[in-house]
Fold each of these.
Amino acid sequence: MALISGDGSLRNLTLEELEDAAHRQGEKPYRARQLAQWLYKKNACDWPEIKNIPRSFLDSLRKQYCLCSLSMSSRLESCRDHSVKYLLKTSDGNFIETVLIPQGGRKTQCLSTQIGCKMGCLFCASGQGGFVRNLSCGEILDQIAFVAKDTGSLPTNLVYMGMGEPFDNYDAVVKSIRIANASWGFGIGQRRITVSTVGIVPGIRRFSEEGLNQIKLAVSLHSPDDAVRTRLIPANRKYNIPEILKALEEAEDKFKRQITFEYLLAGEVTDRDEDAVELAGIAKMIHAKVNLIPCNSVLKEFRPPAERRILEFQKVLEKEGIRVTVRRSAGQDIAAACGQLRLQEGSVKRET
Ligand code: SF4
């Protein structure tokens, strides 16, 4: 089992667990709700900020927990689109990234779920840096509290698309979603939360049974061809396209939101007309929509597709009745593809 060393954050605890902690100290259950107010409404990151709770209770908590397990390593703001990338240090000296992307009236925060990643995707810096460990639920939620403290307000939307594969750290991710969504927690609506997976089939099946059916599920497909997809996403060897589609078909009616396929458009690798036709067929099977992501020049292995090719690809899908959006990566000038900053800064610390 992977070592978890972020268990010390108080945001690992549900309201029930906070009530148990209060009970053990001879405190009334309402103290847990007061504490939750400080953790999720006021984003307290230092003990002296907490005012209306008995010092003896706080002192006992302080012996076991911290209010924020993360500290700032660096903060980069894009001069192009004002997205902000934070490189944060964990209590055991590792580094994770989170990005805040302002767009229209929304502020979307992209969360990391692991330090590094086992999936090894060819186009991803996190995959190249290897895997260190899972993040705890508290470390996932501390990313939200930390950034809210820095900016003065909570994000409106959350995407579990940062460093790591969310369904490879299933329990901590689902617990963090429940707390982020809870009225006593950050209170972020399920419809404003997206979980992105490379297609971990048991994770898709389990997640469809969680009752979190307003959450948006995004699957990184990136190619309709198993051989090409295996090159891009080695995890495809274990869970190939037919298996993923079977799981999605079975789960489709349990999700109230349309499933999204994320699709990386790489010149002459995934951007041919025949790819578009096959992709349309797959998307139709599960009534999915498609997010096209033209690869950028940071990805050395691939050539960005020409603008005309992107539009032609989009047209083929639309002609087949598929809903398509083209997503330009935010913060390209600040290395906002997951894991890039951590690699660039040489801040990859391996477990020994
Ligand atoms: S793209 Fe996602 S799943 Fe693939 S290596 Fe990167 S972080 Fe992991």
Amino acid sequence: MRLILFTSLLLASTAASAQTADEWHQRGREIFEASIEIPTVQGRGQMDEMVTYLRGLLEPAGITDITVHDHGADYGGTQSMVIRWPAAEPSGEKAIILLAHMDVVEALPADWSRDPFTFAEEEGYFYGRGTSDDKQGVVAITTALLRLRAEGFRPTRDIIVLFTGDEETVQEGAELAVTRWLDLSTIEYALNADAGGGAMLPSGQMVGFGIQTSEKTYQSFTFTATNPGGHSSRPRPDNAIYDLADTLTRLENHRFEPRLNETTRGYFTAVADLQTPEVRAAIARWLADENDGEAADIIEAAPTETGMTRTRCVATRLEGGHADNALPQMARATVNCRMFPGTDPAALLAELRAIAAPSNVAVEPVLPARPSDPSPLREDVVDAYTDSVRRFHPDVRIVPNMSTGATDGLFFRQAGVPVYGIEASWGVTPTDERAHGRDERIPVRAFYENIDHWTYMIRRLAGGGEEAQ
Ligand SMILES: [Zn+2]
């Protein structure tokens, strides 16, 4: 199976490549190798080397408006960079901003079958920490900018690039960019290299490409039961651990109200035929009647759709009691919620408190929620994405996508800037889904296609709608 796949990758890669594109693929590969081999892990202090390297590529190409922002020692001394390519022929349109992150999750050589920070190409794959998340995004954007400069491209609007240095940890870069470094009134929307992308089945069939327009909101809560306690030889009728356990059982059985928005409606419409007949029928029923909660429950139970139909909350941590021979005076659980976009945090808190009330368990948010609305499905962005991806994968399914997790894009959405996760890289599902994990990798062909994709997207969206090659 694997051999067949690699053979088909090789053949397709040879057929699809033109002469000049090949040269830029090689340039991108060199930049990829150098970037992967700088371990930009929190606490290792190597962001400076990464930033200096990228600056050294861009400045000789004439992209000289580069600001490196220091985050300060409290955040491991990491850095983020803002790159500007001003409009050569201003059309009056606001800027677009391109997002990617330079930092990567730690990787220990002992956990890998190879050195995570030594770049390698093997059997149709590039290996190394960050090959999928998200050095390939940084490299695709950088290579696209270099190529467009070399080809004499004249942007009709300002192009801004934000490469952050802490997306995997505290996301201070994105927050500061939104609150201090950038004037958001000059920006129309963001294109995010840390979301979107395609999935291929082991058979070599492409499932589809997702354009991410929405993400759920993260919020944790503490559930705390308290009790006067006492000697365990004389149990009281009430007990903090039992109170908490009863509450968590009610939470487990609770179903939040199913909800649909423009993104998830488009998503379910596009993926319905990939599902089992039962789930497919439930999707049809739910799309016809949003209030059909029973249909939504069937969809939510499908492993691929977990979290897609509503807010979900789940217990993630537990503590309690203070001695083997004492009645517990306190028992506490952490419950992590992922709110469906548009959910009122106060309403969710009230709903959780109602679940906890019968057992006298107190519910408090850990941090204030930072909700964000879904970005509208802009026709120009969706059309450009569709046209770009279908150059490599004719007629492939394009799916609007809501992430159940979060990226730097969240901060822009919260601030009212629409964000589109438009990666065109892809991998074989589930074997290539190794972000944050062992032996992270990306198909060579996906990496090269993604360079061509970002070149196309920038040319089309920052070039007055000009059709790219
Ligand atoms: Zn990422």
Amino acid sequence: MSALEGRVAIVTGAGRGLGREFALALGHEGASVVAVDIDGSTAEQTAAAVSSAGSPSLAVRADVSDPASMDGMAKAVVDRFGRIDALVNNAGLYETLTRRPFHEIDPDEWDRVMAVNVKGPWLATRAVFPAMRARGAGKVVNISSGTFFSGSTLWAHYVSSKGAVIGLTRVLAREMGEFGICVNAIAPGFTLTDASLSLVPEAATYGVARGALTRAELPADVAGAVVFLVGPGSDFITGQCLVVDGGRQLH
Ligand SMILES: NC(=O)c1ccc[n+]([C@@H]2O[C@H](COP(=O)([O-])OP(=O)(O)OC[C@H]3O[C@@H](n4cnc5c(N)ncnc54)[C@H](O)[C@@H]3O)[C@@H](O)[C@H]2O)c1
């Protein structure tokens, strides 16, 4: 029996990039996978790929920054599968951001980044909490970013939002621990996704020399950590942030 068979895992931002990779990896381990994305057609494509690889799936078009949308998403999952075991808060504003000095960032863009990258994980976790609490178990994995540790310049809103994700992770771990729910974060390094490739022309070699492991980071490298934090091997780990970056930053 696969490690995650019978478990239901939700991945936000699953339409492409890292989220799609997480959805496929969780399905590969036997989980029923819910692919959530603001782009419904890409969510459908990911769900179809999970199903054709042999695991049950559901696509939900939803906006993580909208409370009603998140509550509706959780209800759709419980209606379909009867339970929620894991939530991967991956959806984030990233590719569409223009990198510029902090004093030139548009306040509306700042607010939107916070709404999707910080409020989104809070709203999604709030929406799935009743189902997890009812079972006395659950795993929440929040996708932060190595940029928080490096203080990567020219996107103060993005880096701040990813730091806030770690703060949220710590609070949620303490508040949800008594219900048997583990909450952890993952901070990927610069990873080759369509978003990264469009942001940085030399993406394939960007930062590689700074790593202990001198190759580019791939979505599959991060997916392994997600599977671990969703699965039973991490049942006594909570409130942590796992840096997955080939040793570019050492803590
Ligand atoms: N790629 C990297 O190098 C890297 C590094 C560290 C952290 N991250 C983080 O990993 C996550 C995924 O990154 P990616 O490179 O795959 O990005 P991506 O832009 O390719 O994917 C993001 C997905 O989120 C969806 N999305 C955006 N806003 C949404 C909303 N309001 N509601 C629901 N879905 C929404 C998009 O439609 C898209 O499918 C992001 O949180 C990003 O900040 C990425």
Amino acid sequence: MRIDIISIFPKMFSAVLDESIIKRAQIKGKLNLFIHDLRDYTLDKHHKVDDRPFGGGSGMVLQVEPIYRALAAVKKKIKGKSRVILLCPQGKKYNQGHAKKLSKCTNLIFICGHYEGIDERVRLHLADEEISIGDYVLTGGELAAMVVVDSLVRLIPGVLGDKNSLNFESFEGNLLEYPQYSRPAQFKNWRVPEVLVSGAHHKIESWRRVQSLKRTGARRPDLLQKNKG
Ligand SMILES: C[S@@+](CC[C@H](N)C(=O)[O-])C[C@H]1O[C@@H](n2cnc3c(N)ncnc32)[C@H](O)[C@@H]1O
């Protein structure tokens, strides 16, 4: 997969995207990631990317022109089709199902907004979809892009060392994952459930299934309803 991210704060990405699974995905050749500074696509000497909103009001708005130019330049480098995603609090709320769909794409381009937002013409004419990572307002789309990229890259086949770990993860089959424990079996007077150290694999499997159902019922009954529907 190829991912391109357009932002006015490109330096924000290295802390997250040059580490851990995303770094490994790049080393393994599963991911080609490119971060583009929107200011590189301006024509004036001050590299201006924003202006005041028409009609008045507070703050600045990212202009359509540099975004148009950045997209055109990025698309030229991409072979085949690409999907343009605008990070936006007014977009469709992101979830694991959405991450799965995106993980099957070949080319994704993310546009990160900032300030008061982005000129509406970017939504109307340049973006294929808008994604919100939740009902709150971030300062910019950079953190949202990192959340989306992280969650979809780990779903690309071959990225995670143990592909089985995806089958038992939260939200798989609309369930939350069972509780996890590791060594020591006892710390202070907190013991791990006996069944987990029994070595009886069938019993462990059914304990985990029951825990997963109980936990989902207690914390996310809405997910269980989806299984019924
Ligand atoms: C301060 S916000 C603009 C909010 C906008 N004035 C509004 O009320 O809808 C600046 C940028 O942060 C990003 N952003 C903020 N919250 C987000 C969220 N929940 N999900 C995705 N992106 C978000 C978007 O790219 C947005 O253009």
